[in-house]
Protein 1
Amino acid sequence: MYTTLGNLLYDSVSPNTGDIAIGLAGQQAFAELDVRARIIDPFEPNMPSPLIVGGGELIRVTGDPFYDSFRQRGRHILNAAGVWSSADDLDYLREYAFVSARSQREVEVLRKWVPDAEVVPCATTILKSDHFEIPGVEQGEPLVGIHMVPHSLRLIEDLIPLIDAIPYKKVFIPFTHYNSDASFMKSLPFDRTNSVILDRLTPLQLHSVIGQMKYVTVSSLHASIFAYSQNVPFISVHQKKAEYYFADRGLIENLVKSRAEFVEQLNRLEEERPDYSSLVEADQARVRTTFLRYRDLISDHSTADWRESPAALSSVRDVIMLDQAQHVIGDRDLALSYSESRRLKLRADANHLAMDLSRAHTELDELTTAYDLLRTAWWVVFVRETSGFVRRTFRQIAAVFKRS
């Protein structure tokens, strides 16, 4: 029976797999400790206390009407938050009972205000999911998971042929739903003769899918964590937040910024299978110990205080979703612009090469004509015809001198 109530405040508004998974992992962790966890709406006008605040990059610069709602004052808990290096006005965190970030690099920002802030791994490291049956896959068949976004194409040159060359059945995994990655991957000219294209899945289904892969190549921090926490080898297209997180685990080489690095990691995964199990066990132990600490900090709040949060204002949600859509469109436009620029450059290079070849052919024709004219000139003919007479005469003279 639940004896304590935990209030989880995170970005539960955006269709972000990682953020939603953080909430689910928090609920699972608390359930093991007989704590009933409730998800608090970020637009709740009267926030309960204490709150466990965390999930995604919540600690940012002030001025964003949505993310400012996570700057709650009081004796709350900041759980493994993502932190911008430019984050400001964090004095309110001095009131918190516990403050943590998900990486050493991010916790250094928090320590400017809270010197005893700690590093706590992302709660999704302990996430549990039921088996999801992947359609179109035979039992025991080796699978490689693929997750691409516009950023991937801008960073890794000629990425599509590299993906096509992977010698296993490929499972295309839409993960960042807010990024419309499903339609994006469907629009790319991949060779799909040996592949499965998944529909939109829940975070727990995605967790199970990634856990079934031989390895994955992804473009999301939490897709990377889903792989890492299930000891699935992963290649992750570089993001700063992923760099910070995996640098703490000595896995920075898994983050790739170029075609050469991507190819190197693909080759490495063909030769060896890395084992993250000892790192994962340490992370999971740290997360569970931290949630036990959270339970002690909130233990005087019983389930009698339970109440559902009222529905948030739909107009505010609509503004947030519209803003996300605009960012997605902008990111896709950048990728298309980059692709078009490369196409135009290649066409220009081809035109220059064609012009160079044309000039070379013209020069060759001119040289051939000049050679033909030279070969038939009277004096060349005279020299060619008389040269034999001269050689024979000198040989005869030499022979006379030799006999004498």
Protein 2
Amino acid sequence: MKKEHKKNFESEKEFLAFEFKSSARIIDDKMVEVIAPDGEVFSVLAGIGKYINEKTCNYQLHVLEYVFDKNFSNDKELMTNNIWKDLMLNGVTLMGMSPGDKHGERTRIGKKIREIREEKGIEAKDLAKLAKIDAANLSRIEKGKYSVGLDILSKLASALGYHIDIVRKNG
């Protein structure tokens, strides 16, 4: 067992018995799916499914769950960077990882729309009318609960006096 685990668990048996908030499962010999504590789904390219030894597979999956729980954050960029580092430190051969299903991005964009709307003193129902979208959809967008398409996002931006642009670089 790696030193990192020894800090928190007395034995490998105790580590394997612990239930983490994240859950990992093998998709195929190259791909693992991890569901983070907030429900966001990440695909991890790691050869865990290639192991013939079931004990090794289960241990590696548990390490993934441990690392996802340990590094969980609403800042998904920081979270994924820390996960990369921790997986390598914990002996999981990682070849790649998806940025998640973008719940974090939906939340960030929704918060920004609400922030701009409130700064301008615009009621949600009025912004919805200006953008010609349903007020209930605007509420879901602002809460990060609705995956908004480019057309709707463009309408909202225009109604707020903004335009869509590439605003942040990954990494």
Protein 3
Amino acid sequence: MTRANPLRVERTPALIRSQVVDNLRQAILDRRLAPGKRLIERELVELTGVSRTSVREALRELAAEGLVTAIPNKGTVVTSVSAEEARQLYQVRSVLEALAGRLFVQHASATQRRALVKALERIERLTVKGAPVLAAKDAFYEVLFEGGGNDALRSVVAGLHARVSVLRSLSLSVPGRTENSTKELRAIVDAVLAGDADAAGEACARHVEEAGRAGLLALSEQDGA
């Protein structure tokens, strides 16, 4: 049986460029395209089945997200995140998410609180099944930041999203991290339901700190491989 090509773009009504971007982004997050790997346009055209123009546009969009980097005289490569860069990103995440937790308690509607509970329950079900949870966690955070009602905060977080996603994917690869992460999210929701803004902020910060430890561990193991 011929193995399916996960980068192959299907001819659907959706915009081809969007499909190329999504497929390449996911390959980077899944580390099928490893940090430092050179991305050769001709090879990507063959893998995706689209035009060179579509590939170039996709690479420009991924560069804007920080997932790939154009290096003079070398071309485009998958962006590598150093341990120091990772520490700094986790520091920023910790502050932003602590603020998001406090704002959610202060401003979220009853509907948004219920949505946060449902988002957590979905993560818990996936965790029990051993299924990927990153997309479900994205949905959880979407509710959390929307409920806080601070557009400036959401904008800053959106700017960090792609770089943070690489680290989140890496941290979740550490054995036991998914289960612990889910428990930490439960602590956030418990604080929200109790109406305790400070506790929610602390739970959000603690979640990021634990993710940071796991991410840096995975990063060091990767660098030493």
